[in-house]
Amino acid sequence: MQNDLHDLVRRAIRSVPDWPKPGVTFRDITPVLQDPRAFRVLIDLFVYRYMRQRLDLVAGIDARGFIVGSVLAYELNLGFVPVRKQGKLPSRTVSESYVLEYGNATVEMHADAVRTGQRVLLVDDLIATGGTMLAGIKLLQRLGANVVEAAAVIDLPELGGSRAIAATGTPLYTVCQFGNEAEDAPAA
What are phi and psi for residue 154, nearest 5 degrees? Predict the structure, then answer.
């Protein structure tokens, strides 16, 4: 039954070949969000996983991690903390830079977003190289949070992100994976 639910979400994900550049297949969760049943199943999979865990906050990574993370926080009756792209937050921030295949990027959080010892679940839509998720983990830990788990809708394990996250000792949960079959070329 549980595998059927994971498969329902996986089948709803749109694969867009050669976007944003030739040779890349983009994994788009927009159809999942547009389909009430698929969206409910996705959120329920996360809720069932975390409803008995002791969590204080859900943090979501800009931008699609906001969608899944904020709904999940609501369902779990928890607060939500945004991990934003640089320059988007109005108060004092802490930041973490990371390397992309085409340059560098930086994510930020408000410096008062979490308190020491708070148990936080960090959510994003996709794990590719893991750079964004790793930066989010570092930010939360720098502020004193205990990152209980990192979670994502999609894992692209061949790009190494899930291994890099595991190497930090942070557990990772993903709803589905896409591999390197002909129709499953690496995503952005």
Answer: -125, 140
CATH code of the domain in which 142 resides = 3.40.50.2020
Predicted pLDDT at 3: 87
Structure tokens at 180: 């390197």
Residue 102 structure tokens: 């085409």
| Residue type for position 69 | G
CA atoms within 13 A on the CB side of 50: 31
pLDDT at 180: 66
Q: What is the DSSP letter of 75?
A: H
Domain count, the chain: 1
Residue ranges making up the domain that contains 24:
2-177
pTM, full prediction: 0.93
d(CA 111, CA 152) in angstroms, rounded, equals 24
| Contact indicator for 81, 58 with CB cutoff of 8 Å | yes
